[in-house]
Design brief:
The complex is a heterodimer of chains A (about 325) and B (about 100).
Chain A lengths: L2 H12 L2 H14 L8 H23 L4 H29 L4 H12 L3 H14 L7 H31 L10 H8 L2 H30 L1 H26 L1 H24 L4 H12 L5 H9 L5 H31 L1
Chain B lengths: L8 E9 L3 H11 L5 E5 L16 E8 L1 H15 L5 E8 L9
Antiparallel strand pairs in B: 1-3, 1-4, 2-3
The chains are: A mainly alpha (about 325), B alpha+beta (about 100).
Chain lengths: ~325, ~100
């Protein structure tokens, strides 16, 4: 992989309709224009994206043998545990945040971002780079463990502090019952459901839904990213208050985790495209499942840190620079 | 029902973060509330710290209960919710028909 083609990939990404729509969303906020999608439309589009990815992945899954999936799946679970631990540790080096805030951030970076994942798939397709059909299963494997590990790290930190200072706020236990609702997330159900439909109905069944779930996909993603741009843009004023340590973390950590993911994918025998997708999954930070789970389990953590870092910095970074970067790395080492 | 009838029940109104909905309704049941109405809400408060703009913002929950239940709801709110979450809660004395439904 030479420099020119890497730059070409980056430029191709920058000038793709979804990324440009994202930029328009940010500009709209700066101009104080209200671009928000109605909540119901937002929910419906998330469902559409998840089901479409699942369906397509399910059809592709028919061609891969179960033996191909075992190694990448195990590596994904391992990364799902290691990434939040690494995030927790790096935050300790870079910032002076409390254990609770570091745990909250670790939960976000341990989980994944559906939109970043989707943008990566669209990018790979546009660039004509093949990837494995089972990558959607890796998303479901990576989404939840990271959140739980992050929460547990935060609770451990809180208990250590509580023992030394008898802080009453730390006596509360994690309310697993409320968390279960957040964690048995819709997203996992829709993705796995889509995969099943895809596997059962095969190419013939997919052909019937293709005009809706295939042909319209990039267009729908473009609309969704306009909204995401507006959401990220609303977080930008907070970036200045986040502090240089958190800022550095939100840019450096995705690259570290992304490289780990690409490497893991390559070791697991995945194609360069597939390894790049695993890299994107590891690099991305959640801003849907994780914020809700963290708000319930760690009310003392400041959303100003975790939402700003994941939504305001890491998400745009991955979308614009990260995705082509992980693809280039995957192509270089494969 | 006459307009000037004496108050015979307590209306508890809680405005809080949508992410808390299921936990809150479980606590209300435990306090003895037998039903409630939840609506989506928008607004601005002194805390202004939100978990996620993606998760539906705020809810407004209203429940008609007896005085004793209202007191225990307020106790739970003060203990478990006020310190950590954005919550506004108030009670009002109200006159309801079929008061036995709510006690």
């Amino acid at each position: 992989m030479d420099l020119t083609s890497t730059l070409g990939l980056a430029l191709e990404n920058l000038t793709s309709p979804p990324v440009l729509a994202f930029a328009i969303g940010i500009i709209a906020v700066l101009l104080k224009a209200d671009l928000r999608l109605p909540d119901a439309a937002y929910q419906a589009i998330s469902m559409y994206l998840l089901l479409a990815i699942g369906l397509k992945g399910g059809v592709a899954l028919r061609e891969s043998s179960p033996a191909d999936i075992v190694a990448p799946a195990l590596i994904a679970v391992l990364l799902g545990v290691l990434i939040p631990i690494a995030a927790f540790g790096l935050l300790r080096l870079l910032t002076r945040l409390s254990a609770v805030d570091r745990g909250a951030l670790a939960a976000h970076y341990g989980s994944t971002s559906l939109v970043t994942f989707t943008a990566a798939l669209v990018f790979l397709e546009a660039a004509g780079i093949a990837f494995e059909g089972y990558v959607a299963t890796l998303l479901t494997l990576l989404e939840i463990p990271g959140i739980i590990v992050g929460l547990l790290l935060a609770r451990r930190g809180q208990q250590v502090r509580a023992r030394s200072s008898q802080s009453p706020a730390s006596q509360r236990r994690i309310d697993w019952e409320s968390l279960r609702e957040v964690l048995t997330a819709k997203s996992v159900l829709l993705l796995v459901g889509g995969l099943l439909i895809g596997v059962i109905t095969g190419p013939a069944g997919y052909a019937r839904t293709e005009p809706f779930f295939g042909a319209l996909f990039t267009g729908v993603l473009t609309l969704f990213l306009l909204e995401m741009g507006a959401l990220a843009g609303r977080r930008l004023p907070d970036v200045r208050t986040a502090g240089p340590g958190l800022l550095a973390f939100a840019v450096v950590f995705p690259v570290i985790a992304g490289c780990a993911g690409v490497l893991g994918g390559a070791l697991g025998g995945m194609s360069p495209g597939g390894a790049a997708v695993l890299g994107v999954l590891c690099a991305s930070a959640s801003y849907i499942a994780a914020p809700a789970a963290v708000r319930l389990a760690l009310p003392d953590a400041n959303p100003g840190y975790y939402l700003t870092a994941s939504l305001g910095i890491t998400f745009p970074f991955n979308l614009i620079i990260g995705i082509p970067l992980y693809v280039a790395i995957a192509q270089a080492i494969a | 029902m006459h307009a000037s009838a004496e108050p015979n029940a307590t209306l508890v109104t809680i405005v809080t973060e949508a992410v808390l909905e299921s936990r809150l309704t479980r606590d209300l049941t435990a306090c003895g509330a037998r039903g409630w109405t939840i609506t989506d809400a928008r607004g601005h408060g002194p805390r202004n710290r939100r978990a996620s703009e993606l998760e539906g913002g705020n809810i407004r929950l209203e429940t008609l209960v007896t005085d004793a239940v209202a007191t225990s709801i307020m106790d739970v709110l003060s203990r478990e919710y006020f310190p950590s979450y954005a919550v506004a809660a108030w009670t009002s004395a109200v006159t309801v028909t079929r008061v036995e439904r709510y006690s």
